[in-house]
Design a protein that fits this description.
Length: about 130
């Protein structure tokens, strides 16, 4: 069975991590409490009427629709048990092999397998968005 990678958050870091693993032999679950990725730098243009809201926000499932190894799960993370390798969500618990918690300024990698680590290392420049 392929390693299960969980990515928490559908922001720039989460989407970059998912995309960088598109050819890796892993199963990816991207977890976010919202069903969309919002490009925040353009919010002011929506407020002034220059752009519509659908021009700066896109559904996560649509953004990743061409990637067969990704599932998007809409839920909220309530905790993590690293010793058991479980992410606790509001509505269930999910086990993982590798966990990515990408903050706004980079990517934190916890409990990775060597194959996943090497795949990310080769795409490090893409991860630093």
């Amino acid at each position: 069975m392929a390693p299960h990678v969980i990515i928490v958050g559908g922001g720039f870091g989460g989407l970059s991590a998912a995309r960088s693993l598109r050819n890796a032999p892993v199963r990816i679950t991207l977890i976010d409490k919202r069903n969309y990725h919002l490009f925040r730098p353009m919010l002011y243009q929506v407020a002034t009427g220059l752009l519509s809201d659908d021009e700066i926000a896109g559904p996560l499932r649509s953004i990743l629709s061409h990637q067969t190894n990704v599932d998007v799960l809409l839920d909220e993370v309530t905790g993590i048990s690293p010793m058991q390798r479980i992410v606790h969500l509001k509505h269930r618990d999910v086990a993982y092999t590798s966990l990515f918690l990408p903050p706004a300024s980079g990517t934190t990698i916890l409990g990775t397998t060597n194959g996943v680590r090497s795949q990310l290392a080769s795409n490090r420049s893409m991860m630093q968005m």
